[in-house]
Structure formats: structure tokens, C-alpha cells
Amino acid sequence: MKLNHLDLSVSDVPRARDFFVEHFDFTCLEDKSEKMSILQGADGFVLVLDKLKITDPPNYPAQFHIGFVLENESEVENKRAELQRAGVEVPSELRKNTRGTMFYFTAPGAILIEVSCR
User: Fold this and answer.
1) Residue 60's pLDDT is what?
2) Which residues of the chain register pLDDT less than 50?
3) What residues does each domain of the chain span?
4) Are residues 23 and 39 in contact, defined by beta-carbon separation less than 8 angstroms?
5) Alpha carbon 99 to chain centroid, angstroms
6) Which CATH number is correct for 63-118, 3.40.50.2020, 3.40.50.40, 3.10.180.10, 3.30.460.40?
């Protein structure tokens, strides 16, 4: 069985859409004004961004996050530097452990993201 998609609620669909298109190479497949965007990654993964039905930020569990994996430590360092140059606040230093090298940051829409290599 293959995972079909992930649907996330965000307060600003266009801002979140533009972030994933610009920094994580997603393509916008469908845009439904400011209510929903359907994105697809280079590997075929579909990410749906849905407008929050309420005004409060989403209430994801504390450890909920999206993980992106890169080929090596150099690519992880480069992605972190790219995000910082673009003005994205990346408070997490690079972490190294038995799972690999990684960093975390919060993307538009209050989405915690991990970027790592194994």
C-alpha cells in the first residue's frame, strides 16, 4: 500500500504553498483560491494545504513534523544555509546522532519540519 497524500491545515494557504514550491521543489497541481492548494513533490508525494476553518493556529501534537531526507550532510548544511539566506528563522543547530544529521525549523502554517540525511 502506498501513502496517497498528507493534508495539513494552515492559516495562509498561498504563503505555505509558495514556501514549499520555493524551498522544497514542490509543484502546484491545483489552486483553489485561498482555500486549498494541492502540491506534488519530485518523487510524486502529494501535499494538500487546506485553509484553517478557525482563526487559531493548528493544534498539532508536540512532536508532529514533516521530514525531508537528503543524500548527505553537505546537502543538509546547504539547505539550512539556503533557508537562512531567504530569511527563514532556523533556530535549530545541526544535530548528529545515530539516525544521521538533521535540523528543525517551523515553516509557514506552524508546520515543524525536519531536514536530515541518514
Assistant:
1) 82
2) none
3) 1-53, 63-118
4) no
5) 20
6) 3.10.180.10
